[in-house]
Specification:
Elements (H helix, E strand, L loop, with lengths): L2 E2 L4 H6 L4 E6 L7 E5 L4 E7 L9 E5 L2 E2 L10 E6 L10 E6 L2 E13 L7 E7 L4 E6 L8 E6 L2 E2 L8 E4 L3 E6 L4 H4 L1 E9 L3 E12 L7 H43 L1
Parallel strand pairs: 3-9, 10-17
Antiparallel strand pairs: 1-2, 2-4, 4-7, 5-6, 5-8, 8-9, 11-15, 12-13, 12-16, 14-15, 16-17
The structure holds 2-acetamido-2-deoxy-beta-D-glucopyranose (5 copies).
The site of one 2-acetamido-2-deoxy-beta-D-glucopyranose has 6 residues, from strand 3 and strand 9.
Main location: membrane
Protein name: Ig-like domain-containing protein
Keywords: Disulfide bond, Glycoprotein, Immunoglobulin domain, Membrane, Signal, Transmembrane, Transmembrane helix
Length: 259
């Protein structure tokens, strides 16, 4: 299960300080390590320097330096990738002697993963609303095909007035105007992975009668207009009332002043 990448014959003949990477699991002849999500990878860099001077090893993850503990630098150095995550795809690990950066060796992670289709979804949609069914099909290696089934038979796009879109990352089956007789059904999105077989997601679509939506915003606008008009009406009347009241006061006061 181990594999050592030998540097070129040229290095072997011309240089004495050559560097090798041992990996678990093994890399192929192009330096690719085949792995999956959540797995662990162990990389050990070694060199055959005869002296203890200048034997410090350096690791790069892509182009960034990997920080190494003291005691994991000299003569031999080990790095672990655990667990392997999606971001590790195509990551290049490079090792060299600090004293000679031109003598380097690399491995690349080849992370495979299935399309993430395992769950199921229940959807309730109103008559005449739009319906969108989405399946994430991103995988490595890429899925070779995606099939949509309706009640057990392949979806007839024309008959069901569906639109099908696939951008390589997701496959979307949609319709703009739901009709119970056409669209209430059990749907299955099936993606075929060359490595992991067929993965499916089930959608149960339930079409309900159209409900008359309460026209909330027009209602609020109407109420505001009515309120404003009444306030204005009261305000203008208020001035009259006040005017009348003050006139009355005046006329009332007259007899008093006379008294
Ligand atoms: C990897 O591990 C995570 C968390 O433990 C889990 O949710 C996920 O399903 C695993 N993925 C695979 C491909 O095994
Ligand atoms: C560094 O390594 C290269 C390639 O292996 C070799 O040609 C060169 O002589 C080395 N330089 C030193 C200073 O060891
Ligand atoms: C990565 O692994 C997949 C699955 O085995 C394979 O098809 C693909 O060719 C590999 N890629 C490289 C660059 O080696
Ligand atoms: C799918 O099957 C269900 C249950 O048998 C049925 O009620 C529904 O009308 C069918 N949908 C279509 C579009 O044929
Ligand atoms: C659809 O939803 C309605 C209301 O929630 C429910 O009464 C009915 O049983 C559901 N029908 C199906 C086929 O799930």
């Amino acid at each position: 299960n181990r594999f050592i990448i030998f540097p070129s014959v040229y290095n072997f003949l011309m240089c004495c300080l050559w560097v090798t990477i041992e990996s678990i699991p093994a890399a192929n002849s192009e330096g690719y390590i085949l792995t999956e999500l959540n797995k662990t990878i162990s990389l050990t860099c070694k060199h055959d320097a005869t002296s203890d001077i200048d034997n410090e090893l350096v690791w790069l993850r892509n182009d960034a330096l990997v920080s190494l503990n003291e005691g994991n630098k000299n003569g031999q150095s080990r790095v672990c990738i655990s667990p392997v995550i999606l971001e590790d795809r195509e990551t290049i690990f490079t090792c060299y002697l600090r004293s000679n950066a031109s003598n380097r060796v690399s491995v690349v992670l080849n992370v495979t993963y299935p399309p993430p289709l395992t769950d199921s979804e229940e959807i309730t949609v109103e008559e005449e609303a739009s319906l969108i069914l989405n399946c994430v099909i991103e995988a490595y290696p890429p899925v070779s095909s995606v099939v949509w089934m309706l009640n057990g038979t392949e979806v007839d796009l024309k008959e069901g007035r569906f639109t099908l879109a696939n951008n390589g990352l997701s496959s979307t089956l949609s319709t703009e105007k739901v009709q119970q007789s056409l669209h209430e059904a059990t749907y299955i999105c099936a993606a075929v992975s060359p490595l992991y077989g067929t993965k499916t997601k089930v959608f149960t679509v339930n079409v309900t009668d159209k409900t008359l939506k309460f026209p909330l915003y027009p209602m609020i606008a109407g109420i505001v207009v009515v309120c404003l008009t009444s306030i204005l009406a009261v305000a203008s009347r208020w001035r009259k009332i006040v005017k009348v009241a003050s006139t009355n006061t005046h006329t009332l006061r007259c007899p008093y002043s006379r008294n």
